[in-house]
């Protein structure tokens, strides 16, 4: 290693015949090229990084792993694009692929911010939007317009855990030449791989189960068509939706345990659902592998018998029971996120769905006693009795 001649000049990286076993974190914003010809070639597509907003190694390492999980079409390596949040992945997709005059059709129970983007922001840019029930392919078909460019769906709805008719919707999108965009956050690629079932674009909030520790905010988007990938990549870079290397590095570390976390959480979720359903004050438990789930057969077929880590349940006693429940289980984080290593609880009537009238909430099955649970990886023999006990206390309190 050469002795440096200035404090501000970067030294050469010490050479080593061995290599680190952990992915290095590369925070550099800029990359120095040997000469203008080389820089020119890089801008024309030769390999190599120039400026971190345009791409950096930690984003590419993370993208390659999610590509593997999703079975993303091999267009480039990596195929997927990492964005600064799940919402940036959705925004980059819209900004890259839509123009004024287009229409976007969405599922009527998409993630709350996605609904807001569709209802408030796209119309401001001259892009029309409407929503339809994705559990009913005929309702989706009926909502298509001549200008419909894109259908946006989630296979599992939030927070009522309904399962969309993905097969029916994919067939409609294909026949009509409409892009099918699937937000696969709730399902994860282990339950469902949208590309294998006709999706054109797959999106993730990496913030949730993939990163898994509630310490990064990131998104992922991959496309089947190279021209779409290019347009989404350009939107990501130009609108400045790109991620930080440190967060990509943390998320890649989180992915090492993704399969173990999901397997444990989904096992616990099924057991928790069965235990809660036995409590007299619990009106219903919604979990895909339960025979009483409204879309049970479809869920079993789509997700190969797996139920995932998300479960919802409803207490008969309304808001009083809901208050008693969270107070009786103070160690379970009552916090509006999902996919964390720890179990989290959300109460849609007081948070994500508070803007709806009680009648509008009732229409989609969300009462004051309704909770969504993101089951974590804590010891099931700690968590399940804790929740069952809280449900019993809530029943008595109301
Ligand atoms: C959280 C979430 C998003 C948004 O992701 P952020 O990383 O919070 O921006 C989008 N879709 C679904 C289904 C989500 O759960």
Description:
- This protein has two domains: about 35-255, Type I PLP-dependent aspartate aminotransferase-like (Major domain) (Aspartate Aminotransferase, domain 2, 3-Layer(aba) Sandwich), CATH 3.40.640.10; about 260-395, Alpha-Beta Complex (Aspartate Aminotransferase, domain 1), CATH 3.90.1150.10.
- It is built from 14 helices and twelve strands.
- The protein has helices spanning about 35-45, 55-70, 85-95, 110-125, 135-140, 165-175, 190, 225-240, 245-255, 260-275, 295-300, 320-330, 360-365, 380-395, and strands spanning about 80-85, 105, 130, 150-155, 180-185, 200-205, 220-225, 280-285, 310-315, 335, 345, 370-375.
- The strands form two sheets. The protein has a seven-stranded mixed β-sheet, with helices on both faces. A five-stranded mixed β-sheet has the order 8-9-12-11-10.
- Strand 2 (about 105), helix 4 (about 110-125) and strand 3 form a beta-alpha-beta unit.
- The longest helix is centred in the C-terminal third of the chain and has 20 residues, at about 260-275.
- The radius of gyration is 23 Å and the shape is globular.
- The chain starts with about 35 loop residues before the first helix and ends with a helix.
- The structure holds pyridoxal-5'-phosphate (PLP).
- Pyridoxal-5'-phosphate binds near residues 114 and 154.
Stretches where pLDDT is under 50 for at least 5 consecutive residues are none
- pLDDT averaged residue by residue: 96
CATH topology of the largest domain: Aspartate Aminotransferase, domain 2
Distance between the termini: 73 Å
Q: How many beta strands in the DSSP annotation?
A: 12
């Amino acid at each position: 290693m050469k002795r440096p001649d200035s404090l501000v000049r970067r030294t050469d990286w010490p050479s080593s015949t061995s290599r680190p076993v952990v992915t290095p974190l590369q925070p550099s914003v800029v990359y120095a090229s040997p000469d203008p010809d080389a820089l020119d070639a890089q801008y024309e597509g030769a390999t190599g990084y120039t400026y971190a907003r345009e791409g950096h190694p930690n984003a590419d390492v993370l993208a390659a792993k999610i590509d593997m999980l999703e079975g993303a079409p091999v267009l480039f390596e990596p195929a997927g694009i990492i964005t600064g949040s799940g919402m940036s992945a959705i925004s980059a997709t819209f900004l890259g692929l839509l123009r004024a005059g287009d229409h976007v059709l969405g599922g009527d129970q998409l993630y709350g911010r996605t609904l807001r983007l569709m209802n408030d922001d796209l119309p401001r840019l001259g892009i029309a939007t409407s929503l339809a029930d994705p559990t009913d392919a005929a309702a989706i078909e009926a909502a298509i317009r001549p200008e419909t460019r894109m259908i946006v769906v989630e296979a599992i709805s939030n927070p009522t855990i309904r399962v969309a008719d993905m097969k029916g919707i994919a067939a409609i999108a294909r026949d009509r030449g409409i892009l099918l965009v699937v937000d696969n956050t709730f399902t994860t690629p282990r339950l469902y791989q949208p590309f294998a079932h006709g999706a054109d674009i797959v999106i993730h909030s990496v913030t949730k189960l993939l990163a898994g520790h509630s310490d990064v905010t990131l998104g992922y988007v991959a496309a089947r068509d190279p021209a779409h990938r290019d347009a989404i990549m350009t939107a990501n870079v130009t609108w400045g939706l790109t991620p930080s290397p440190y967060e990509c590095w943390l998320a890649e570390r989180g992915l090492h345990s993704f399969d173990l976390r999901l397997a444990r959480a989904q096992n616990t979720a099924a057991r928790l659902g069965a235990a809660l359903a036995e409590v007299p004050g619990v009106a219903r438990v919604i979990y895909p592998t339960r025979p009483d789930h409204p879309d049970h057969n479809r869920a079993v077929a789509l997700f190969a018998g797996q139920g995932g880590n998300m479960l919802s349940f409803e207490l008969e006693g309304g808001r009083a029971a809901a208050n008693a429940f969270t107070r009786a289980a103070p160690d379970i984080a009552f916090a509006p996120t999902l996919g964390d290593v720890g179990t989290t609880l959300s109460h849609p009537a007081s948070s994500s769905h508070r803007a709806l009238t009680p009648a509008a909430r009732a229409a989609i099955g969300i009462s004051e006693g309704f909770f969504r649970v993101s089951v974590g990886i804590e010891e099931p023999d700690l968590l399940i009795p804790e929740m069952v006990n809280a449900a019993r206390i809530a029943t008595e309190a109301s």
